[in-house]
Write a structure and sequence with these properties.
By secondary structure, the chain is of the alpha/beta class. The chain has a single domain, classed as SGNH hydrolase (Rossmann fold). It is 47% helix and 7% strand. A four-stranded parallel β-sheet has the order 2-1-3-4, with helices on both faces. A two-stranded parallel ribbon has the order 5-6. α5 runs parallel beside α13.
Length: 299
């Protein structure tokens, strides 16, 4: 019986998910490919879909004249996995912007154990990264295999709307979710509240030690706050204030006040992290200003 159940679970785990293969989630694989092919110094953006849907990287390239790779993908993959996947590609002179979404500082989202998203994205797009899973993450993934299979089976005949920003062809050469013309207006977005007012100290240490290890290699790492919808920011201010204090205590504060990236609701597209074209352009211009200041201080 145990053998039969194990074979069933293996079959379910190996069933392909068409959504993962046809959506912007392929950016996980494309980012690794781009990083492996660039020999010069580069700027790398690491974060959730708020980065994927939140940058106009052409502006960064025009300003700094360096290749830009936006690795932004579904935040539920977890910031820990995002750092592990790409660190092998960072070299002396590179600039890395780490921009976790606020929920990624909580336990479940930091480790990608909130749901089946981590497994769905990696198995279907970047299976070699499964080797980076901790025992803790692996155990939780097993728990979500039935849900993964249920979703994958439901997606078996998926036909993507080819003009959707979520379709794989919306990704431009930098990794931005482009298709700007379909993201120039706000869709009704509910505000959220981050209930957990105690950020996970272990996650902050993971980011701290990652930054220290990269800086020893000559990589310049900067921790930026995410761009967040004003109403959600105000609802979650207790958590955000606690996070700011905890980051400062650990010696890795955001390079700029979190309020700077609290944007008016009208600049968001369909979630409280996904920006319209106007919002993404404004955010990118502000990032360029802040990054200029940081790089000048490093000289």
């Amino acid at each position: 019986m145990i053998l039969v159940l194990s074979l069933v679970l293996i079959f379910m785990a190996k069933y392909p998910d068409k959504y993962a293969i046809e959506s912007h989630e392929i950016n996980v694989r494309l980012s690794a490919e781009r990083l492996s092919q660039i020999a010069t110094t580069k700027i790398v953006i690491i974060g959730g879909s708020g980065c994927g849907f939140g940058f106009n990287s052409q502006l960064i390239y025009n300003h700094f004249h360096m290749p830009v790779i936006n690795t932004g993908t579904h935040a539920s993959i977890g910031i820990v996995m995002q750092l592990k996947m790409y660190e092998q590609y960072f070299k002396d002179g590179d600039v890395v912007l780490i921009i976790p979404e606020y929920q990624q500082f909580t336990n479940k989202y930091a480790y990608g154990i909130e749901d089946q998203t981590l497994y769905r994205i990696l198995y279907n797009n970047y299976p070699s990264a499964l080797k980076y899973l901790t025992i803790y993450q692996s155990i939780n993934i097993v728990k979500y295999i039935p849900k993964y299979f249920q979703d994958a089976y439901a997606h078996r005949e998926l036909i993507f709307d080819t003009i959707s920003p979520y379709y794989k062809l919306s990704l431009n050469e930098y990794g931005d979710v482009a298709f700007w013309e379909y993201r120039n207006h706000k869709i009704s977005i509910p505000a959220h509240t981050i209930q957990n007012d105690c950020p996970n100290d272990d996650i902050i240490d993971v980011i701290k030690y990652f930054m220290q290890a990269q800086e020893k290699k000559g990589v310049k790492c900067f921790l930026f706050p995410p761009t967040y919808m004003s109403q959600s920011y105000e609802n979650s201010e207790l958590f955000i204030n606690s996070l700011n204090a905890t980051l400062l205590h650990h010696g890795v504060p955001f390079i700029t006040p979190t309020e700077r990236y609290k944007f008016v609701d009208s600049l968001f597209y369909d979630t409280d992290y996904h920006l319209t074209y106007e919002g993404a352009t404004l955010r990118t211009q502000m990032i360029i200003e802040d990054l200029d200041s940081c790089l000048n201080l490093c000289k």
